Amino acid sequence: MHEFSVTSQIVRSVLEEAEKRKAKKVTEVHLVIGKLTFLGLEQVRFAYEALTKGTIMEGSRLLIDEQEGVVKCNHCGYEGGFKYEDDPMYHVPVPTLKCPQCGSVVNIVAGKECTIKSIKMMI
Amino acid sequence: MAALKKKEVVKAEEGEIYDVELSEDLLKANQRLAEENRQFLHKNGVRAIDVMGAIGSGKTSLIEKLVQLLKVKHRIAVFKGDLTTTIDAELIARHGVETVAINTGKECHLDANLVKKALQKLDLNNLNLLFIENVGNLICPAEFPLGSDKRVVVVSVTEGPYMVVKHPFIFMEADVVVINKKDLAKPMGVDVKQLGKDVKMINPKAIVVATNCRTGEGVGDVAKALEL
């Protein structure tokens, strides 16, 4: 939904890092994007290409790892994927905050990140 | 087998590729600012409630009715997020509470930085309760905490029967879910109870209240659910 503004933040951060190290070119950027964010990878790639044009990032490789949503239950200690409700009425399984093991309310511990993991640059 | 060649020492040369580990989370920057807002508000004895929901779901009407109900008991201010115009902000301001319009321009959600800026416009000594109405949108605001104590999501029956299951992540963020326009449930053919069940299925800890924010029906229960 706001891929353009988030991606421009990504590009700005990468360019800042590159400038600090007096890089001539950025060759690769590695992102981790959580599946619980509302960032469409297709749109991030599109915005990335548009935003890097004319900069030292132009033509760099964009790697994106997707991070699955992980929940943790303080009641029974479960840590893992969501419990999905798969009522045929909904057509798609709906994720819920119920613990798949004991039914208590869980906390989301991963899946909301949008991280620049690493950058490769030519110095 | 031939002996291994002596390893050459690799020197950093011109044109060499450097791998920089960064691990900078761009959404975390907003979360940090939100935490600062929360602490700033608490230090000044102000509780903040963030109201989210689709365009036309009744966020402004809910806040108007809550203000009418609570302005005797609390000293209230309202932040009203919109792309442009101050129409809604003026609707709220006529109830005699301090109102700050936050125009995002083009952004589809408020963020912690905009709220921080708006906070500078308030006299916090004169205040103990702040409502923050987000931009009408069921998607992005879920991703941008603002520093509020409680988050309310408003969904109305005129949005159809599947609004809750279609947007599970924003309902996971909610402490209180308001199902508005319940008087229109019948003509819309929407089951208020089913919407409530959908909320409870996704987020069992959310409190669900059905309202008609035009008349004020159910708004007292919303205040109770928010412990106001």
The top level CATH class name of the largest domain in chain A: Alpha Beta
In which range does the helix fraction of chain A lie?
10-25%
Helix/strand order of chain A: HEHEEEEEEE
Please state the second-level CATH architecture of the largest domain in chain A. Answer: 2-Layer Sandwich
Assigned CATH class of chain B: Alpha Beta
Number of domains of chain A: 2
Main sheet: strands, sense, barrel of chain B:
7 strands, parallel
Label the structural class of chain B: alpha/beta
- Largest interface between protein chains, with number of residues from each side: A-B, 36 and 35 residues
* Assigned CATH architecture of chain B: 3-Layer(aba) Sandwich
Globally, the shape of chain B reads globular
Describe the structure concisely.
The complex is a heterodimer of chains A (123) and B (228). Chain A has two helices and eight strands. Chain A has 123 residues and is an alpha+beta fold.
Q: Can you walk me through this structure?
A:
The complex is a heterodimer of chains A (123) and B (228). In chain A, helix 1 packs across helix 2. In chain A, strands 2-1-8 form a three-stranded mixed sheet, with helices on one face. A three-stranded antiparallel sheet of chain A has the order 4-3-7, with no helix packed on it. With 123 residues, chain A is of the alpha+beta class. In chain A, a hairpin with a 6-residue loop joins strand 3 and strand 4. Chain A is built from two helices and eight strands, in the order H-E-H-E-E-E-E-E-E-E. Chain A has two domains: 78 residues, hypothetical protein PF0899 fold; 39 residues, no CATH class. The longest helix of chain A is centred in the first third of the chain and has 18 residues. Chain A is elongated. By secondary structure, chain B is of the alpha/beta class. Chain B has a single domain, classed as Rossmann fold (3-Layer(aba) Sandwich). Chain B contains nine helices and eight strands. In chain B, strand 3, helix 3 and strand 4 form a beta-alpha-beta unit. In chain B, helix 2 crosses helix 9. The radius of gyration of chain B is 23 Å and the shape is globular. The N terminus of chain B is likely disordered. The interface between A and B is large, with 36 and 35 residues.
